[in-house]
Automatic annotation (TrEMBL):
The lineage of its organism: Eukaryota, Viridiplantae, Streptophyta, Embryophyta, Tracheophyta. This is Transposase-associated domain-containing protein. Residues 4-79 form the Transposase-associated domain.
Length: 343
């Protein structure tokens, strides 16, 4: 694999020139110490050949042709064409989600094992056994001869459809009741929404319910955790029966659903494919002046200028916040990844 990281560096810097020289040298060596090689600069466009020094000069002074630069295979310089990559991408998505869930589980076991160290050694074995049983259950084929889906991948795929298309719990329950009848008799698809939610929850990617003041003054957490009414507007935390005026103790007027972000980020980095996607922004900035992703924006560059040490580490996570007032949705996006994953 030819090192391509240099091609995205500033052409005025010594690192770019060093990268270009090494690249040209390696290509020439691979061609049996050739004197002339195909020049990938914006003018020669892999059509004209020049002696090695001239190719380096062209790369430094003119830059590499944009389309060639963004290719993963520099096929004019001895790399194999890998045209299949795009086709397999979508089928990889399920694998990635599966990897994420699996990573979530591995993470929990690691934490659990760390907790147990120095305490009870047998506890470790028990936890390990439970974990292996859970993974085995999740990896069970959907039905014995099924090669495309495990129990986990099937449930995750269906749940994605539900969330992406806004299906109600009722629609989803009906689908779950119908599907097993269409599958071979010994399938392992859970048949109720409750079971499916319980199954997913066992991988600990759930959310926290936090009670909120009905007028949005405060959240009933930390020092307000035990209050019965809002400290500012004095409105009751609990619902009241509209007919009798009786307070329904324990039934909150408003609930905030909070999806903790840190465990999610940790898990994304534990999944091999997602960890790769989280570094996508670093090498995929648009080079033709077109805006396709926040990474191509002026604001992104301004942030990089203000925080150069943050910008230098490709694994640093950049988050975007979006709100939709009417639905009271407040979402945080990871801007590191290709835009299609955030849709
Ligand atoms: Zn050239
Ligand atoms: Zn209030």
């Amino acid at each position: 694999m030819v090192d391509k990281s240099w091609v995205h560096l500033c052409r005025a810097g010594p690192a770019y020139e060093k990268g270009a020289s090494e690249f040209v040298r390696d290509v020439a060596v691979a061609l049996g110490d050739a004197n002339m090689i195909v020049c990938p600069c914006i003018d020669c466009r892999n059509i004209d050949c020049h002696v090695c020094n001239v190719v380096v000069d062209h790369l430094v002074t003119r830059g590499m042709e944009e389309a060639y630069k963004s290719r993963s295979d520099w096929y004019h310089h001895g790399e194999l064409n890998s045209g299949l990559q795009g086709e397999t991408k979508s089928s990889q998505r399920n694998e990635e989600i599966f990897g994420l869930y699996k990573a979530a589980e591995l993470g929990d076991v690691e934490f659990a094992i760390n907790d147990y160290f120095g305490e009870i050694a047998e506890g470790e074995d028990k936890k390990e056994d439970e974990f292996l049983a859970k993974i085995a259950d999740a990896e069970t084929p959907l039905y014995p001869s099924c090669v495309n889906h495990s129990k986990l991948s099937a449930i995750v795929s269906l749940f994605r459809l539900k969330t992406h298309n806004g299906w109600s719990d009722k629609i989803f329950s009906n689908l779950l009741e119908t599907l097993p009848g269409m599958l071979p008799a010994d399938n392992v698809l859970n048949t109720s929404l409750y079971e499916v939610k319980k199954f997913l929850k066992s991988f600990d990617l759930g959310y926290e319910n936090i009670h909120a003041c009905v007028n949005d003054c405060c959240l009933f957490r930390k020092k307000y955790k035990k209050l019965e009414s809002c400290p500012k507007c004095k409105i009751s935390r609990w619902k009241t029966n509209i007919h009798t005026g009786e307070v329904k103790q324990g039934v909150p007027q408003k609930v905030l659903r909070y999806f903790p972000i840190i465990p999610r980020l940790k898990r994304m980095f534990r999944s091999e494919d997602m960890a790769k996607d989280l570094r996508w922004h670093f090498t995929n900035k648009s080079t033709d002046g077109k805006l396709r992703h926040p990474v191509d924006s002026v604001t992104w560059d301004q942030m990089n200028d203000i925080y150069p040490s943050f910008a230098a580490e490709e694994r640093n996570v950049r988050l975007g916040l979006s709100t939709a007032y009417r639905s009271h949705n407040c979402r945080i996006y990871t801007l590191n990844i290709p835009i299609c994953f955030n849709m």
